[in-house]
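Quick one:
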Amino acid sequence: MYEIKTQAFFAAAHHLLNYEGECENQHGHNWMVEAYVKGDTLDKSNILIDYKVLKRELNAVLDLLDHKDINELPEFNGESPSSEMIAWFIYGKLKEKIVQLDKISVWETQTSCATYYEEE
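Output:
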C-alpha cells in the first residue's frame, strides 16, 4: 500500500456553538490541512497521484473557507464549526474529486488537530 500527503493552509474565523469557554467567542486560526491519499496501484510514472493535482483540488476546497467566518457559511448553518466538522467538510468536498482520498487532518494550532476518515 502506498500513501502520500500534502499540506495546505487557510485563514478563517469561527466560534463554537453549545460550548462554554473562550472558544465560544469569535476567534481566528491560521489552519493547516493535510490531505492523505492511499492506494495499492501506481500509474505508468510509478506515482499514486500527481501532487499538482492533489494540491490544486485541495486548494479549490480551501478557497471556500479562506478568509471567511466559517459560522456564516451555508454548509455550517446551525452547526458548530469545530476542527472535527471542518475536517469532515473538507473530506467530503475533496472526495468528490480525489477518489483515493484516505483522510483529512485539520490543524488549528501547532499542537492540536482533528482527523476525519471513513472506515472501509
